[in-house]
TrEMBL record:
Gene3D superfamilies per UniProt: Periplasmic binding protein-like II (3.40.190.10), Winged helix-like DNA-binding domain superfamily/Winged helix DNA-binding domain (1.10.10.10)
Domain HTH lysR-type, chain residue ranges per copy: 2-59
Family note: Belongs to the LysR transcriptional regulatory family.
Any Pfam family the entry gives: LysR_substrate
Molecular-function GO term, any one: sequence-specific DNA binding
Name assigned to this protein: LysR family transcriptional regulator
GO biological process, one term: DNA-templated transcription
Lineage, uppermost ranks: Bacteria, Pseudomonadati, Pseudomonadota, Gammaproteobacteria, Oceanospirillales
Length: 295
């Protein structure tokens, strides 16, 4: 049997057509890749690559050797992934955005635990995309257009943003009875989503230039918090501010939602084995989201 390390270097270099790219992938130097492949060629007694100035090309022998070697590594990867999945099938590590975690998920987690008391769940907050290959996270909830690479994305529901404010903001002499009445009050914006107010107003045949631009914040959670403090009107998902609505510190002004291409998705790494805990959570969260849409 040739050394496993040499086979790994051969498979990576053949896939990339480059010793440099293989070195980067395997976190070694290009000369180490070259040394391993020379050792493999010596062991086999034939050349696997033709070296040119700019790239390396598989010989006919290299081509025929690559196919079974690639298949063996895929089988090895799948067997390892399956074994790891079986070992932790009763546990789930989940990553979600802080606002979604505290506002939507946490108030509903008791229902999940009642239905699946044997599933151990660990939840962490995350504001960016997850590198599933570099950590133990099983699943995550993303917000966006659903076009992320290397993940399976399951649609949950669209973003539903409506104008909200603290009732105390509204002056008796300037009531808000129709959307154009909001021009007397500052509109709170999310820095990376400046288009949202513009789009909402245009959807209602209103000229955004006639409305006052208020403070800008780094997240929707902060704009909702500012609105609750009476600093202006924010575009917020009503489901994420139910405690404030019930307490009377926020009020939905118009039940007309912004039509957007951004939605909530449940995601996990492509090609990984789905555990029973992952299947259970996927089924539960899709059901919860659907229930909220009809309520």
């Amino acid at each position: 049997m040739p050394p496993l390390n040499s086979l790994k270097c051969f498979e990576s270099a053949a896939r990339h057509g480059s010793f440099n790219k293989a070195a980067k992938e395997l976190s070694v130097t290009p000369s180490a890749i070259s040394h391993q492949i020379k050792g493999l060629e010596s062991f086999l007694g034939l050349e696997l690559f033709r070296r040119t100035k700019r790239k390396v090309v598989l010989t006919e022998a290299g081509e025929s050797y690559l196919k079974p070697i690639k298949s063996i590594f895929e089988q090895l990867e799948n067997a390892t992934s399956e074994l790891k999945s079986k070992q932790k099938s009763g546990s789930l590590r989940l990553a979600v955005a802080p606002a979604f975690l505290t506002r939507w998920l946490m108030p509903r987690m008791e229902r999940f635990q009642q239905r699946y008391p044997d599933i151990e769940i660990e939840i962490s907050s995350s504001t960016g995309l997850i590198d599933f290959s570099a950590n133990d996270i099983d699943m995550a909830v993303y917000f966006g257009a659903g076009d992320w690479e290397d993940v399976e994305a399951h649609y949950l529901r669209p973003a539903r943003l409506a104008p909200v404010c603290n009732p105390r903001l509204i002056k008796p002499e300037q009531p808000i009875n129709k959307p154009e009445d909001m021009r007397f009050y500052p509109l709170l914006h999310v820095t990376k989503r400046k288009d949202e107010w513009h789009d909402w107003l245009q959807q209602h045949d209103l000229d955004p230039k006639l409305f006052r631009r208020g403070l800008m914040f780094s997240s929707g959670s902060l704009t909702a918090g500012a609105a609750a403090q009476g600093l202006g009107i924010s575009l917020t998902d009503p489901e994420l501010i139910m405690p404030e609505i019930e307490a009377g510190t926020l009020k939905v002004l118009f039940n007309q939602h912004l039509i957007t291409n951004r939605s909530f998705y449940l995601v996990y790494e492509k090609r990984r084995s789905v555990t029973s805990a992952m299947s259970a959570f996927k089924e539960w969260i899709i059901e919860e989201m659907a229930g909220n849409q009809h309520s």
